[in-house]
Amino acid sequence: MSRVPLPYSQKILELFRNPKNLGKMEDATVSAVAGNPQCGDMITFYLKINEHDIIEKASFESYGCAANIATSSIVTEKVKGMKLEDAWKITWKSVAEEVGGLPAVKFHCGILAVGALRRAIRAYYKNKKQIPPEWLPKELTFEEKQALEEEELARILSKKMKMAEEGT
Ligand code: FES
Description:
With 168 residues, the chain is an alpha+beta fold. The protein has a single domain (10-166), classed as Sufe protein. Chain: A. 46% of the residues lie in helices and 13% in strands. A 3-stranded antiparallel sheet has the order 1-2-3, with helices on one face. Strand 1 (30-35) and strand 2 form a beta hairpin. Helix 1 (10-17) packs across helix 2 (66-79), helix 2 (66-79) packs across helix 5 and helix 4 (92-98) packs across helix 5. 38% of the residues are buried. Bound molecules: FE2/S2 (inorganic) cluster. FE2/S2 (inorganic) cluster is lined by residues 36, 39, 41, 64-65, 67-68, 106, 109, 112. Residues 36, 39, 41, 64-65, 67-68, 106, 109, 112 line the site of FE2/S2 (inorganic) cluster (FES).
């Protein structure tokens, strides 16, 4: 059976072939693993943050698709040199625009990239055990809710599999 190729932009294809900041960061200040319940793919985001809460560098590991690799690559480029407060404001829509648009079935891949970034920022303040800054929402944002922690993702996927086996 032949598959219809997805209408990926040139930019996505370029970044998929040659992603920036791909790989584990050994000296990261914080990392966050995040998975998407729609496709079951996972990524890890690494941030090196200095004492002024500025991101010195960012990298990622992805087991996701071309759209996820391209959007994660863009996010890691964008946040370099940014204050955490400004990095927090990056939206998945702006990232999608920067890669030349995402097919609708691939929106969640861009959301996963931004959700993982936000989870890493939230984890940074949690690890510091100090009162979080005012700009950090108390509730998880939409993007974070879509970028589930590993255990949560495993729980949801096994529930889905069980339901499929039982034919519900
Ligand atoms: S299909 Fe899973 S990250 Fe794109």
